[in-house]
Amino acid sequence: MFEKLHKNAGLIFPALATIIALALSGTLNPYLAFVATSWVIFGLLGLSLDVAWGRGGLLSLAQTAFYGLGGYFGAVIAINLAPSSGMTLVWALPSAAVFGALIAVALGYVIFYARMGELQSTILSYTFTLLLWSVAQSFKLDVGEARIGGDNGLSNIPGIILGFGSEAKKIGPNEAFATVVVVTAAVYFFTRWLMRSNFGKIVDCIRIDIEKTELLGYDIRKYQLLNFAYSGAVAGLSGALFALWANYLNPSIFSVQEALLVPIYVLVGGLGTLAGPFLGALIIGGLSFWLGGGVAGGQTTLILGTTLILLVMFLQNGFLGALDTLWKKFLADPNDAARSAGAVKIDTEVLDSILEEAAAQAGPAKNLSTDEAFKRFGGVIPVNKVSLDFASGRPYSLIGPNGAGKSSFLKTCVGIYRPEGGKILLDKDDITKMAIFERVHKGMGVKNQKPQVFGENTVMENLWIAAFARTRDTVQADKTATRILWMLGMEEQKAVQASALSHGQQQWLDIGMVLCLAPRVVLLDEPAAGMTNEETRELSLLVRTLAKHTTVVVVEHDMEFVRTLEGHVTVLHQGEFFAEGDIETLRANDAVLDIYLGRGEHV
Asked: Which segment of the chain is annotated as a signal peptide (predicted)?
């Protein structure tokens, strides 16, 4: 029962809060109802940031820009249409949401498609808001009956009108409070549904590990842009609500103080919780209202600032995050299964059937080849005109001393590194300039040197998100993920968080995610790292089985593991091809021993 209540807390408690707010709306003092309406609107603005930051991973300081622009746009629409048609919400809210989304798309396109870092993205969003604040102070424009007057702002904004026709009147503060609560609740519950949908799951994975999400075949920039656009729509809608509530707008809506208050709402309430920004706005607004009543003796700003600093310092996940942590102490810990897990055992019969089905669905194995692939980092050349060919039937191993360019070669093949010269071919397709996710769609599957799993998600959720990337079908993704889970022998760990797994188990989970993609070419970078001897033997069996159905390339330092693969071995040295053959022949090659032992002319 407690587990079910915990799982649905984001639905149950906001619903109760909505019911209580509506029940109190008729009994509140009109002035308090008027002020409390602004707290709800600020919470909705905070929700827009939580979508972009808490779920999408981008600390956007442009939310007040979308908020202000949405407010101005929605107000202009309302001023011109309300006198004849009434019902300001019908005109102002949708138009403001669309306008906010469009502005967010324009800014987001620059941020995401230019591949900006987190800091640069935050600075650009903040700069955009400051520019708007500067422009708004002198910007003047007449749009029909609406007059934007620069510093004088925009006045004569009709309030919240629910009736239709020219005779419809503005509603009072108590009714306005109830109306804003209903609109806000509708947006919150839709946002919660969206963030729990397949779209939201992908957005969460992008936040946790952006590179891994693209390696699964997702067009991450498209999802980032759509998520940011939605956050802009929510901000624009909240701006229109604010304009109708206040009946007046001025450039201060774009000010630095307003921009920095929004992250505080989110942090105080709980980052990534969606409901947290409403609690944060209520706490901050309520404290300001109470302290402003004279109880603080003129020290309102000092007391409020100190309180906020203490809250952020000691409740690092905000109020709702702290409550969630406390709640979990009374629930059974599913991660206990990770501590009692034995070694992973591969079911080769299941693996063979999975690979045969994959070949039937995705086609036969593909050949991977490079033609003088070249990659430079300043004066360092980790991949120096390497030409290699890989085909199915037997495993291929890349070996060489540290710094030989093995991992760099694999990353060049998959697109993590863009080569300055040469070609990468998948069968006859030139994939040299393709994005990572496009190469995955062509049939590549990659496990990097460090295991990349979504630590906040369970084992099953990790496998599911990988399977869904290929199938785009919820039911088929369930089936594929379940089969891979059983093939790995990890069914008892399905509900365990990936971060609770040992290093070796995370390696297996990462390999399982690659298999969910049904790749035609599999690239494995040091897959045996962190595994026990027993697990390494299982891994060798898996790689040899894979090679019967796909093209497999393994980078590995463990020579004994490479020997058990019984495949073709290529030695790289200083970014160049050095030697090739079977492992026993290479072990007897003095030139190869020279570069490994640091002796002789080849070093």
From this structure: none
